[in-house]
## 1
Amino acid sequence: MDVDEPVLSGFTIFPNPVNKILQIKSPVEIEKIEIFNIQGALVDKKLNQNFINVEKLKAGIYILKIYTGNTLIVKKIIVN
């Protein structure tokens, strides 16, 4: 998978830190979203959505992986 600069230029996640719903704005279709805890365990996964509910997650730092076509975008998020 490649990091595609045009995709990254129109890509945003908000709010961060997040309490309930994390929104993802992307110029291309999002195929899959995965959230991993700091130990690397997968804690949530969604298909074909541009948001994810994090209410059930404990407060802390998580890694967000967003798959769009053949591009993988990795971001750090903070759950309050």
## 2
Amino acid sequence: MRDIGGPQVISLADAVYAYASVVHRGRRQVQIPVPGKAGAAFRAGVNLLSPDGDVVGGSFSEHLVWRLET
């Protein structure tokens, strides 16, 4: 199985902000750190695309625009 990902790395907070702005929901965001081993792994970037992975698709913002148009 190959490792795939998009062309940009954004934080979850930025993704939520982008989604909220596209669907016109300007609610307040509160950032809460994820505790434990899972949180530590995300902070270390374990979930990011590996160097030998394949970049596919467009940016998250482009995906949001596409979803609104369909």
## 3
Amino acid sequence: MLSTPPPAALRARPLPRLVPAAAAASVAALLLAGIGEVGAPVALAQQLASGTVDTWGANSYGQLGNGAVTDSSVPVAVSSANGFNNTGVTAVAPGSAHSLAIQNGTVYAWGLNGSGQLGNNSTTQSSVPVAVSAANGFTNTGVTAVAGGGAHSLALQNGTVYAWGYNNFGGLGNNSTTQSSVPVAVNSANGFTNSGVTSVAAGNLYSLAIQNGSVYAWGYNTFGQLGNNSTTDSHVPVAVSSANGFTNTGVTAVAAGSAHNLALQNGVVYAWGFDTQGELGNGTNPTDSPVPVAVNNANGFTNTGVTAVAAGYAHSLALQNGVVYAWGDNSKRQLGTASLAVSFVPIRLTLSGITAIAATSYSSYALAGDGSLWVWGDNSRGELGDGTTTDQSTPEHLLPPSGYLYTALDGNADGNHVEAILSPAAVPEPSTWALLSAGALTLLGLGRARRRRKALA
């Protein structure tokens, strides 16, 4: 804790700039040089591990990774196991009932594994992290992004996409319908070369990737979720069609719902695929679209300058100027309104200063700039993390553990659990006055001790 500020007369004088916390002890030592032992100059906050993963919600298959199979309505730390020590994690991605995390460039997975979605050459579920196997060119080093689907997984290693797990509809993109319990490389096809990929996303039975600003998709396509003006499955990547203002260039982000998708092109949101509840946001009665359509302007949303998108089972979220907008299904109040009415166009939530958004099947999440969360919607499995299983019709504030900030989170459109990354809150740098005060207090203590020794002599 910093000391009491100096008197007004001293405050009028300019003080030297702040001293980095790491140098505090050295500066205090210099101030007190030659005057006996030096005590701690300033009490700093406890140093906490950075990149710690907490999870909460459904856990029937061990998808929370804490060694149990019991749901949790409060955040729990993922167990350290099999080389994973729950620190330094840089990315997380839940699947429907499994989870993924990147630590030091290595992918770990836990949860349901009946289709090999953990990628460890097994189909046995695990309630603690296991390392994904190195296979077929995948070395499990230098991984920069992951995505979890219904029962398959994707990883981006040096710009190349690898996939594993369920594959009956070609969601692995390797021109096969055979599931794989180890990573396989996605095929190059139809303009997709499987190099220089910058982002991946996974829906229920299909996959998406951005390469050189263009979106490619593969897998299940009954509802047009591949966006290529077709409803025929594809076992290799196909380019999303240009339509309705979408040119499939300059795309910076994609989000996969259960069977619909969102893409950001030059700050404008486009959507395609399943549209049972208005999740495409284009203002029409729900009609599936096999090509991208622009989300409507409505209720303050102008569909420009959007910075992030997220998709639940049948609802969608967008972030514009720190404000959250939502549309689609509202059966669990995942749009953040007391009404249960669906919305075919974006509606504005009473939140601001938001930096990231996420969704699970029927719940929504927003990460605020202060490192706290806002949560709303379905809470039947504890997926809101507030210690209850009561649904929330409007955003509820969820604070991080003491000394931490939430820095990232993610959910899955077919799941009911959340992964979040925590990092320590910044420790304020002590001012020169604080250091001088600490030195003065130490000097005062030493002076009193000397006087006491004289008195006893």
## 4
Amino acid sequence: MPHVFISYHKDSSREYARKFAKHLIDAGFDVWIDDRIDYGTEWERVIFEEGLDKSAAVVVIMTRGAWESVWVRRERQYAEANEIPISPLRVDDYIFPPYLSTQFVEARSWQMPPVEFLDYLEKIGVTRRQDGGRDVAKANQVADKPSAPPPARAVRQAKSKPSRRPIWAGLAVFLAVGAVILVVALVLPNLPSGNSSPTLSPQPESTEFPDYNATRAAITGIQPTASAAEPLPDSIVIAYTVDESIVGINSDGSEQITITEDGSAPAWSPDGSQIAFMRRSGATDNPDIFVMDANGMNQINLTNSPATDSYPAWSPDGSQIVFSSIREETGYAEHLYVMNADGSNVRRITSNDFNKNTDASWSPDGTRIAFTGIYNGRDAVYLIDIDGANLHLLPIEALRRGESCTNPDWSPDGSQIVMTCIWGLEFDIAVVNIDGSNFRRLTDTHMNFHPTWSPDGSQIVFRSTPDDEESNLYVMNVDGSNLRRLTDDPALEFASDWR
């Protein structure tokens, strides 16, 4: 029977997707969700042929991670091409740019959608049963599992004649058995007695460089003593997010180290000794702003609030941190807050009527902040003084054409801002002067996000998914030349920062 297909980003909305699926099943709808299902090499075929082709509706759980997910985008495009109705579900204040002018389902603060949405699903053809629905993907996998093999006796009885083996096969077996007997005869007399302790021969020292990934357990969220973690090498200059882990890498991609396995959106302190980042915590599993040493040690929760706190950025002198937060006091709109580096003196600096104020980047002189807000229903880059005064739109060509721009990062000399802008269905990296002049596009490779300047202002690192390939980190010169890939990992990589 026609079911509901749930499209979501595992790292940003897995738990909600599970609860939403159960909500629909309890209401009588069959649901297809890929959670906890393992089809091995058949995975992609099953998603499209079983999940989408047989669905009567697709619900997209909108989060920032889902927007940047290659899989969610493919599922959306497939549904659109096959005219399957799509219902965007708004669980926080992030809205997919194509859906800004579309009717979406309100479920902010991660609530379940209203009962009217269930009626809508039934109206567009999703079967609803009084005795409850089912998890179609899980049920199909159970049905597809091969039956257990028959008992050995039945197998022997079914054989009509013995198989033929060449003579050399029997000889090989004979020689193998003889070799085992010889080894036992030689080794057994030399084994230690029951009360003696065996000794190990000393191994030669390795001449290879140390594998810093082997120390990842010593620098994760469960902290050992300070002496247990190794210092982060000075060569590791870029920190970025892989799913919900923070990884460090050098500027040519040849050395990678897992800094912590629980965190995202890293931001280096100005002196490079600490990293501010977001991490889920508490009973509600909501993101808070943490700070840790560069090697992942001494993780401290700075915000520790029931709010959703994200995307921190340090002031140039290292004394303050700006971050985004969705709080009850603002009607659950996303606003910018500033606090001291120790978490004290938290204050809100935006007071506009935008539902979104995020992606903050501090000016090198410490007086202003660039961030993503909303202009005519689309993402746009704004500038604001640190005290909340002088809010104004960065006047750039893309906005005049009705396009969107987001992910701003201030250049080290303070003269330019790099950002992600949308041209049609393309997301590319662009640079513009602070007064809005000399706007220029640097990439033309389909999906590019989260650009960040190198400290000397000569290069830009960003995440790219060129031509539907896997998402990886790339670096290029500030004029767009000398593009090269830094990582080669099928996992989602984003939100990088350069020290």
